[in-house]
Amino acid sequence: MTELGQAKSPADTRPAGVVSSVPVASADLRLIEPGPDDRRAWWRAVVDSDPDALPEHTPEWVDAICASGSYQDATRFYADADGRRFVVPLVRRTGVAGWGGWLLSPPPAWGMGGVVGRGLDESTLRQILTDLVGLGAQRVWIRPDPTRAGLWEAATDDSSLAVGRHAHVVDLDGGVDAVWARLHRGTRKYVRRAERAGVRIEVDRAGDLLDTYYDLYLTSVDRWAARQHEPLRLARWRARRRDPLEKLVRMSHHLGPDFVLTMAFVDDEPAYGSIMLLGQTAHVTRSAMDVDRVGSTKAGSLVQWSMLQLACAHGCRTYHLGESGRSQPLAQFKESFGAVGIDYAEHRYERLPFTVADHRLRAVAKKVLRFRDV
């Protein structure tokens, strides 16, 4: 494992705004420390230069994570001799839960992260991972962009515990007309049916409808609990712990108009809601509905189509539809919008077997509860 060196690069080789620069794993790639006044601009410039950057790569997203008080910003900045720049949005868990050092990109239930920067290649990624692991934390967890799965697979080795995941992504190439043409014929039919049924769509970019959305979310939690044979109190506790309303409010506050909540109303009652994050790419991160109100209106199809149009208008290259797990119905719904399933891995570096122990405990708990993964 290559330790960070102490020698600083000559002042005339530093990127603008850098107050120090030290070698990482080679003479070419260096760890950068932008000055306090330049840090955010440096970070934003890297994100803006990468056409595949996720909304979760932005400094605003890390601000939202850290606003809870449970995490501290530990983001790392890099540059090489060719002028390429890279950022790893990274946070450190605080308090007792962060015992021994726990670095996350990002924390659980906060989307995807990993390295961002135009021109990232296998050698550079490997050097960055060597630096991160060399920090000495008990745990380093990284959940990267699924579309870069091949690069991450090539750059990692057996020192990483790969946690398999499955996500869906829509290619927005060609714009809104091309995306409409790639929708499944039945999906286009459902969109038209929702419009004829009088489903009303409201797009909220200020967080005004979050209370309404959260009521739908809790309704969905009750439905999921019944399907999974999970005690209702436990399901509600887990849901509020994972996604309290205050967390969504922080997301909206820090991302501003790039936090988009699209709501469908049936007979003027909230029926379906979905949250999308906008950046170089779009990421649909949460959805909830009232099954009884949605009925046969296909309101969910109209919500997804509305968000696809917004993503195209924003200039996004891809539209991430998030995790699908092993759910075949969920995968089919996403694929009806032209999404392609991608197998990828979250990479975890642990000095103690935290993940293995956690999975075993969860398996025992599920067996006791007769929990059904559906």
From TrEMBL:
Family annotation (InterPro entries): Acyl_CoA_acyltransferase (IPR016181), BioF2-like_GNAT_dom (IPR038740)
Record's Pfam families? Answer: Acetyltransf_6 (PF13480)
Q: Per the database record, which ranges form the BioF2-like acetyltransferase domain?
A: 185-323
Name of the protein in question: BioF2-like acetyltransferase domain-containing protein
What high-level taxonomic lineage is stated for the organism?
Bacteria, Bacillati, Actinomycetota, Actinomycetes, Propionibacteriales
